[in-house]
Amino acid sequence: MRRKLAAGNWKMNGTSDALAQLDALRKAHPTPGVDMLICPPATLISAAVVTAADHALAIGGQDCHMNETGAHTGDISAAMLKDAGASHVLTGHSERRTDHGESDEMIRNKTKAAHAQGLIAVVCIGETLKEREAANTLDIIAGQLAGSLPDVLTAENTVIAYEPVWAIGTGKVPTMNQIGEVHDYIRTKLEQRYGAGVGTSIRILYGGSVKGSNADEIFAVSNVDGALVGGASLRVEDFSPIITALENA
Ligand code: 13P
To answer: Are 90 and 39 in contact (CB under 8 A)?
Structure first.
């Protein structure tokens, strides 16, 4: 059985007053029936780890550099995230791919760097609207999986997040059939590459305009093991119903 994961990506949102949301989140779910993860901005990681102490709520980074140290102004290494108390890191988010020109190869190296530090990498993939309209979705997914994932990984250190770029922050959600088609396809690809044991056990999250109002139907789709939530993870009153929906799925 794959343990479900409710993950929040705060993106470039939140200063220290946002820690109150984390505190409220842990109080709202004292003994969660699913794994919980929040990826705040890097400036809040250390404080978030303190706020989440003695709770199942995990704290993660939103990106890491592929190198451990060096002359890379503004970047953060996986070792630094680990040192700050993070247990997870997102790699290959579409906003990183677009805003920072990250290639599959870079993302693969970042994922390897995360693994080398004992971090769980949440590797993000997803097609653009143009690619979906051209009926290229599955080819894009196959290419991103092949390029962004290292040859060696485990079901414990890797999570996949399928986030259609056109569904992020838009309020547009694919049909449940579309989500199911891609998640089943990812599962098959993982099993082919990593074998039935690992491939069957890696968790696959859906991300893109997940809300309390659509969470039940998304979590009922096969091979959806949780969600990576942006906007609706910022406030406990929006994120909490998503966690509850996942617990009840
Ligand atoms: P939204 O939930 O705001 O659409 O963002 C999804 C996302 O990009 C999470 O990483």
So the answer is: yes
Catalytic pick among 29, 65, 163, 183: 163
Task: Identify which of 28, 88, 75, 19 has the alpha carbon closest to the alpha carbon of residue 47.
Answer: 19
Reported as a pLDDT band with limits 50, 70 and 90, residue 54 is confident
Residue 140 domain-assigned (yes or no): yes
In a domain, 15, yes or no: yes
Q: Is residue 68 part of a domain?
A: no
Residue 70 inside a domain? The answer is no
By the 8 A CB rule, do 185 and 141 touch?
Answer: yes
- Let me know if 93 is a catalytic residue: yes
Kindly state if the Cβ of 163 falls inside 6 Å of ligand 1.
yes
Share of the chain above pLDDT 70, in %: 100
Question: What is the reported pTM?
Answer: 0.98
| CATH number of the CATH domain containing 110 | 3.20.20.70
> Catalytic: 72?
no
- The number of distinct structural domains making up the chain is 1
CA-CA distance, 67 to 72, in Å (whole number)? 9
Domain that holds residue 209: 5-63+75-247
| Nearest alpha-carbon partner for 160 in 187, 191, 193 | 187
Structure tokens at 2: 């794959």
191 Cβ neighbours under 8 A, 6+ residues apart: 199, 200
